[in-house]
Design a protein that fits this description.
The protein is built from 5 helices and 5 strands; from the N terminus they run βααααββαββ. The chain has one domain (about 15-135): 4'-phosphopantetheinyl transferase domain (Ribosomal Protein L22, Chain A, Alpha-Beta Complex), CATH 3.90.470.20. The chain is globular. By secondary structure, the protein is α+β, with helices and mostly antiparallel strands.
């Protein structure tokens, strides 16, 4: 488990913060090389929301958000199945985090009640910042 910086304890309502970046071309290669890559890491809804002509930018940003969620929880990449972390939104709706199964339990155990998330992709890189919040304030 990764220990959160002591300063986070002084931020009202903040349980953790995570950030991650993903190389879009690397995501494109992974999707093209391994048929099961998409379904292994993304929900059906996430795959459906990606642009059919080039899903790599969207999926890279969502993958970055999944890793950022793990970091915000103080966990490593293999501590929870990434498919249990779903990034919703797109097509005019803001991104949001929806957790399932053991990921939802891990967040509840840490007092997380809601998530703030920002996604971006530009210049061949996708990035995500996630804040785990304990209360509505």
């Amino acid at each position: 488990m990764i220990e959160a910086p002591a300063e986070l304890g002084h931020q009202p309502g903040v349980v953790g913060v995570g950030i991650d970046v993903v190389d879009i071309e690397r995501m494109r290669r992974a999707l093209g090389r391994t048929e099961g890559f998409g379904p292994r890491y993304f929900t059906e809804s996430e795959l459906a929301r990606a642009r059919p002509e080039d899903p790599a930018p969207s999926l890279a940003a969502r993958f970055a958000a999944k890793e950022a969620v793990l970091k915000a929880l103080g966990l490593g990449i293999f501590d929870l199945p990434l498919r249990e972390i779903e990034v919703t939104g797109g097509g005019g709706s803001p991104p949001a985090i929806r957790l399932h199964a053991t990921a939802a339990t891990a967040a509840a155990d840490r007092g997380v009640r809601r998530w703030l998330v920002s996604l971006t992709h530009d210049g061949g890189v996708a990035a995500a910042v996630v804040v785990a919040v304990a209360s509505s304030g």
